[in-house]
Design a protein that fits this description.
Helix content of chain A: 40-55%
Strand content of chain A: 15-25%
Number of strands of chain A: 5
Low-confidence stretches of chain A: none
Structural class of chain A: alpha/beta
Largest sheet of chain B: 5 strands, antiparallel
Number of helices of chain B: 4
Radius of gyration of chain B: 14 Å
Shape of chain A: globular
Order of helices and strands of chain B: EHHEEHHEE
Number of strands of chain B: 5
Mean pLDDT of chain A: 95
Shape of chain B: globular
Largest interface: A-B, 23 and 29 residues
Oligomer: heterodimer
Structural class of chain B: alpha+beta
Distance between the termini of chain B: 25 Å
Largest sheet of chain A: 5 strands, mixed
Chain lengths: 119, 135
């Protein structure tokens, strides 16, 4: 079965989405991330969506859910690398991604995580 | 013929991915900006998922259209599903019966230039969206 890799980098997990996700793959990723946070006790999660060409309401909801679930499990999430065209489309679509922190790239996301976790 | 309508099935999740890919390619062929491409592909994805989930599967017909010297793309999504009893309610932001955020129809309407929905309970639903080049 197709799966998106989750890399462990110290206290953080890094997930880079590089495929056009169908809905089931998005659901599987959500499940995989929550179980990895729980087994690794990661304190931060970086979701790199710089290769993602569109975020529709389903993917948007997945981003919100992952952030919420991670927080409940003790990890902060930062979604990084959203393309400008995706951001513009999300706003017109009416998706505000409540509770989702974002940063321009992985470096800035990492810095944001370190700052909020006082690492 | 560039203007032959093309029909794609929407019977499974991979068909949504395929529909997005087809529309992306067509918008690139028509020279649309990245923002216009992204808006239209996102709208395609929303309505295709509605057809699959709420309509229990259906078809998407793609056609290039011309009006007042402008080119555009028209997509017609049809299903023989349960239909929508209250279209005004279904078009309201935040209204959902499924797993999304209730923005599929209302949000897509904002991403395209023309939007039409016809539905009959017990018969099915047809959603038409059009986006024109160059704006």
């Amino acid at each position: 079965m197709e799966r998106i890799p989750i890399l462990k980098m110290g206290e953080f997990l890094l997930v880079t989405i590089q495929v056009d996700m169908h809905d089931q793959l998005a659901m599987t990723l959500q499940d995989d991330i929550t179980s990895r946070i729980s087994t690794t006790e990661a304190r931060g999660l970086l979701l790199d969506i710089s290769s993602v060409e569109i975020v529709d309401s389903f993917i948007g909801r997945m981003l919100v859910n992952i952030s919420m679930m991670a927080r409940i499990l003790g990890a902060e999430t930062v979604v990084v690398g959203m393309r400008p065209a995706v951001a513009i489309t999300l706003v017109e679509l009416g998706l505000s991604l409540p509770g989702v922190r974002t940063a321009l790239d992985v470096d800035k996301g990492m810095a944001a995580l370190r700052a909020s976790l006082s690492l | 013929m560039a203007n032959e309508p093309k029909t794609l099935p929407l019977r499974g999740e991979s068909d949504i991915v395929q529909a997005r890919r087809e529309i992306r390619d067509l918008t690139i062929k028509l020279g649309w900006s990245l923002i216009e491409q992204t808006k239209f592909v996102t709208g395609t994805s929303e309505i295709a998922r509605n057809t699959l989930i709420h309509g229990k599967g259906g078809d998407m017909t793609v056609q290039e259209v011309f009006k007042d010297g402008r080119r555009g793309i028209r997509l017609i999504f049809t299903d023989q599903g349960p239909g929508i009893p209250d279209i005004a309610l279904a078009l309201r932001d935040g209204y959902t019966t499924g797993k999304g955020m209730g923005l599929g129809l209302s949000g897509t309407k904002r991403l395209v230039h023309e939007f039409d929905i016809k539905s009959e309970v017990g018969k099915g639903t047809a959603v038409t969206i059009v986006k024109w080049s160059g704006r």
